[in-house]
Amino acid sequence: MMLDMQDRLDHIHQQQDDQYQAGKSRMLQRSERNLESVKHGLYSTLDTGEALLTQMMDKSVRENVCDISEMVVDITITDKAFDSLLHLSQIVGNQALQAAESINQNIPPSLLDSSMSFAETSTGEIIAIADTTGESISVAMASQIAANRAEQSIRFAAKTKELNEKINEKLKPNKKDVEALHKEIEPFLSSEKIIDVERLKATENIKQIEDFRTYTDNFKNLDKLKPEEILYLNLCDWLAPKALEINDRLKKIPGGLKIIDQKTGIEAVIKEFDLFHSLLGEMKPQALANRVSGGHLFIPELKGAILDINEIKQFGKGYFDMGIKYAGKQSTKYKPNSYFPIGTSIEQAVEIIEDAISNKGFIEFIKPENISIESALASTKKTFEATHRQNQKFTLHTDNGITNFYPNAPK
Question: Domain residues of the chain, as ranges?
Fold first, then answer.
């Protein structure tokens, strides 16, 4: 079989030699190039080529479509001429495969939904071309993208490490709780790429995600996102199914989950917990100031990516207060922000709040100072302070049944 193949190769080569002096057309030049690729690349890539190409196909585009262009098309034609005896990966030179692999590992987020064509430039460089936009990326560009991402990841990791060291020294959290929460969120702790774009696209009616949906044209233009925004969206992806399950349970409570000030009779029905604001915090595209709002679940990777930290003060049983400002802000002023104990899970945080709401004799309606009691009662917005049985106080803000919450630090 291999002898027959060699005969065919020799025949093709002889035909090319006969026509060489007459002037080679572009098609003949391509044929000659393909033949040399076969000769020099076949045996060296037999074992590794197919595996590399499979990986390349998996990583290049989300639909697993790779519309290969001129160079590889020619090779495919040659392959068919061999009666499909050789796989594509056995024919492509090892250098081309490695170049394409390097490109595919570092394709910009904006191109992830495109099918990619691989071509060779006149200088012999392998480039990838997005079929939808015509945008191209070379090995050099891919390497620079990888370097930039790595640099940012290193910076985030360094801040996270520093923050964890401060927390461990000051608070001495329960190691098992910390490890359990980290294990749960670890698959989502990427600041380099969106973990599951299709799942994020399918997640609806969450304000924090909708802002980014609009900004990226339904997550098509992902290269517009900064690394910390990618990390935030991945954590939103982690939280979304949990929030849905928790809020679906609230809707099944007969009459709704009520919070009542027993002394005044003032009450509100909690239809939904805004867990994205309360636990992850706020983030909007290209906006910095609101990144210090909410976010009372301590996730060091997220805090390290977006915030600068100063003084840490513990209160109650593991709760703490931390001075924060958004990273890079030219100011010495830090905003205090309170947190649940380190290692608290989403479910545990909600359970703590619901226990405080059920402690009915220790709930107080907080009337805003600038309005009358009548106006406060008529308003859809109400604020309560609830005290947990462990004597920890929480503030709950409810607006049309949507409620956010946080632990109160001592004044």
Answer: 2-134, 143-407
